[in-house]
């Protein structure tokens, strides 16, 4: 199974998102936001930017198709259209131009659907 590359960036139903935040979020806090504890947020980071995907817990929470991304910077996996746990890491600088393009598309896709709640502390971007 692979993550499909988004074809249409605009959500089907227009969303009112909060202004992006740049609050520092540690890797430990990010790890805790994996959906395993009810009532806690579910976060996915892309290139160091943290998105709150809690409204889509059915996909990103335990048992969801994309739970592998929850609580992590999933940049490499998204760029490679992979749902392998070993690919759900923050390393993307060594990817080819095509994969970086896919990663940028995913960033755009997420930014039109989910609130940006911060930046991973120590991220290269």
Automatic annotation (TrEMBL):
<protein>
    <submittedName>
        <fullName>Cytochrome b5-like heme/steroid binding domain-containing protein</fullName>
    </submittedName>
</protein>
<feature type="domain" description="Cytochrome b5 heme-binding">
    <location>
        <begin position="25"/>
        <end position="121"/>
    </location>
</feature>
<dbReference type="Pfam" id="PF00173">
    <property type="entry name" value="Cyt-b5"/>
</dbReference>
<comment type="similarity">
    <text>Belongs to the cytochrome b5 family. MAPR subfamily.</text>
</comment>
<dbReference type="GO" id="GO:0020037">
    <property type="term" value="F:heme binding"/>
</dbReference>
<dbReference type="InterPro" id="IPR050577">
    <property type="entry name" value="MAPR/NEUFC/NENF-like"/>
</dbReference>
<dbReference type="InterPro" id="IPR036400">
    <property type="entry name" value="Cyt_B5-like_heme/steroid_sf"/>
</dbReference>
<dbReference type="GO" id="GO:0016020">
    <property type="term" value="C:membrane"/>
</dbReference>
<dbReference type="GO" id="GO:0005783">
    <property type="term" value="C:endoplasmic reticulum"/>
</dbReference>
<feature type="region of interest" description="Disordered">
    <location>
        <begin position="1"/>
        <end position="25"/>
    </location>
</feature>
<dbReference type="InterPro" id="IPR001199">
    <property type="entry name" value="Cyt_B5-like_heme/steroid-bd"/>
</dbReference>
């Amino acid at each position: 199974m692979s993550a499909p590359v988004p074809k249409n960036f605009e959500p089907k139903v227009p969303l009112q998102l909060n202004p992006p935040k740049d609050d520092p979020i540690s890797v430990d806090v990010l790890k805790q936001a994996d959906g395993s504890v009810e009532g806690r947020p579910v976060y996915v980071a892309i290139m160091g930017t943290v998105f709150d995907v809690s409204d889509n817990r059915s996909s990103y929470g335990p048992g969801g198709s994309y739970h592998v991304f929850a609580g992590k910077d999933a940049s490499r996996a998204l760029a490679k259209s992979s749902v392998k746990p070993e690919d759900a890491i923050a390393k993307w600088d060594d990817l080819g131009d095509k994969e970086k393009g896919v990663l940028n598309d995913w960033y755009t896709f997420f930014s039109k659907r989910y609130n940006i709640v911060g930046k991973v502390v120590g991220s290269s971007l």
